[in-house]
Amino acid sequence: MFDIERWQEIFDTIRKNKLRTFLTGLSVASGIFILVILLGFGQGMQNGIAQEFEEDASNRIVVWTQVTTKEYKGLNPGRTIQMRNENYDHIETRFNDQLKDRSAMFRVRDAMVNYKKESVGYSVQGINAGFQFVENQYISEGRYINYQDHKNGAKVAVISNTIKKEIFKNGISPLNEYLDISGIQFKVIGVYGDMGGEREEERIFIPMSTAQRVFNGADRVNNLYYTLQPVENFDQAVAESTKFSNDMKQYLQEVHTVAPDDTSAINVFNTLEEVKRFFTLIGGIKLFFWFVGICTIIAGVVGVSNIMLIVVKERTREIGVRKALGAKPWSIVGMILHESIFVTAISGFAGLIFSMGLLEIFGPYIEVDYIVNPTVNFNVAITTVFILIFAGAVAGFFPAWRAANIHVIDALRDE
């Protein structure tokens, strides 16, 4: 039942002690504010990491080779490991059921690219059709390199939006135009864009078979790219991706006579493993943020409890009069708890609204390295406030219980 006299008592007490009440409420509000802001930046870090990995396929696996660092089976360290077409073909056949997209890559060394009288310095790479999906690229004009281009050794090229802007000015379409790549004419069949931005658009792609044949690549391969079939569970996806990476690496080590513990000769980058590592790190950071925020809230709740003790001390004589007139102990407890919960609730919601408002207004504009659009789930935020209110009730209970157990005679004697 709504008791207007009770509320009048609470507001009278607050008016008499404005500064004390304000400082107490400020400590509680700051606790919620700090917790929400920290949780927001924790989510912002998770958003930033996710965005970094979204630039390429989420389950991308890349293989490259360097030199051996350990002696193995009579072979000295320092050998350069060179992958071949047969390695790519073997992996494709052996793991075909697991693979979604796949591509080999041959890097054309020291390629000179010219269009009419203009020369540009972009890298040229031979790839298979699946490279588009591994790198999360999209087509702006024309088409991408396909299986027939690779099979026929076609002299065709796909350029990026960035290259198009630099070479083909005044809105000229690059389709069916010819690029001179180290003295050989390649017909432009498409323009691609990359989700990673312009830094990923400084490459010209030609069919893998053409690159190897025309630029003396023989059957050499520089990199292997794969994505796996999607699964519903993230942990299962990580486990399958890790197993595939290990099995593939073991095969390459065996066929190239590399020591199993040589960590330099054959390298595998697994995006899912990196995602899991970063998310585990972010989870730890979030726990730390919760710890800091809750400690701050506890400090505020302790402040509420101390203030209630002071209130009880100041109103000892009043409490004695109430009890002498027949007030029940739980009536005294309710009176103190009411004020404690009111101060805690108002302060908690003030801190929540202010912090959520800041994140809502400025969050979308925050985009620094690994922190993008810090936000907090409203349900989580509102739950913390209700937990705070409960804590405020607990904080006020002990002073209230003390007030309820004051002897009437002692209370009336209090000065």
TrEMBL record:
Pfam families tied to this protein: FtsX, MacB_PCD
Entry's transmembrane regions: 21-41, 287-312, 332-358, 378-398
Primary location class: membrane
Protein location: Cell membrane
ABC3 transporter permease C-terminal domain segment(s): 291-407
Protein keywords: Cell membrane, Membrane, Transmembrane, Transmembrane helix
Record bears the keyword Membrane: yes
InterPro entries: ABC3_permease_C, MacB_PCD, Macrolide_Exporter_MacB
Entry membrane topology: Multi-pass membrane protein
Residue span, MacB-like periplasmic core domain: 21-240
Family note: Belongs to the ABC-4 integral membrane protein family.
Entry protein name: ABC transporter permease
Protein species of origin: Maribacter arenosus
Source species taxonomy: Bacteria, Pseudomonadati, Bacteroidota, Flavobacteriia, Flavobacteriales
